[in-house]
Amino acid sequence: MPRRRTNVISEEPSLQLTAASSTLHTTAHSVHTVFSIENFDSSKKFDRWLMRLESAFMIFEVPDIKKCAYLLHYMGPDAYDMLCDKISPKKPDLLTYEETVEIMQLHYNPEPLEIAEIFRFLQSLMVQDN
Prior knowledge:
The protein folds into two domains: 1-34, no CATH class; 46-108, no CATH class. 49% of the residues lie in helices and 7% in strands. It contains five helices and three strands; from the N terminus they run E-E-E-H-H-H-H-H. It has helices at 46-59, 64-74, 77-87, 97-108, 114-129; strands at 15-16, 23-26, 30-32. Strands 1-2-3 form a three-stranded antiparallel β-sheet, with no helix packed on it. The longest helix has 16 residues, at 114-129. It starts with 14 loop residues before the first strand and ends with a helix.
C-alpha cells in the first residue's frame, strides 16, 4: 500500500508539523492548533463559559476584530436566536464584541430585582419567627 505523502514544515526531529495535520506533535505531548470550544449551554453559567472562551482567545491569539465572529459562532443556536430577538432589526454581526457580551450577560446573568430581594428577605424573617 503506498504511503501518504505529507509536506513536512519542520525538519526538527522534536517538532514535526505536517501540512496534513491539525495537531502539533512534540516528543512530550500534542498541542491542538484548531480553535474549538463547545457551544454555550443556556442551562450553564454564561460568565464561566465566557471565561473559557476568552482563555481560548488568548491561547490561539485571536485578534480583537475576530472575537465577535467567534462568539456568534460558538454561542449556539438558542443563544443566537435570543440575541437576534433582543437586537431586532439590527443584525448580530453589526455589534461589537463588547456589545454582544453585554447583551448576553444582561439576559443570562440579570441583576436581581430589589423588590424580589426584599420579598425573599421578609419571607425568611417570617419563617424564622415561626
